[in-house]
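=== RUN LOG ===
request id: a7f3
mode: sequence -> structure
chains: 1
length: 163
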Amino acid sequence: ILCDIGSHQADQFVYFTGSTVADVTASQIANVDHPDKPKFQDFGDMMLHGNGGAGYVRVDWFTPRGLGVWGDGRLFIIGTEGYIELRKYTDVAGRKGGNHLFIVDQKQARYIDCNNVVLPFGARFVSDIVNRTHVAQDQQQALLAAELVLKAQKNARVLQFSV
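=== RESULT ===
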């Protein structure tokens, strides 16, 4: 699970912290809700640290039916002066659609609807593949993110739950 959906969060960690060197502080995985599939992992988390910051990643396959969308992608960027929360797919408070941005700083808390914001990554990524460039994502960044999740998955503590 860490190499799967956790890879995106590791990439975001490397990108947003600007880290060029990073490692895994700790990681854990579990099969919480699928005893009929003993090798399946439906929960994982990892703590990361790099020369640009520290981060925590939590991923799971637990989407309640009442959510209305599949998955609840959230990104938190926390700093000394405030924080940013991005709700990628839904706002549980009831706003329609995805791409909800909340910013809290020393002055105020505010909301920004990002549904009309252009997201250039996809087009840039395709262009990188076609043109053999590194505009959307630096190759070293991608390799570092991949290394982080491979280490996290390999060294993860396997949690056991009895229900």
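=== NOTES ===
Residues 29 and 158 are 5 Å apart (CA to CA).
The chain has one domain: 6-159.
=== END ===
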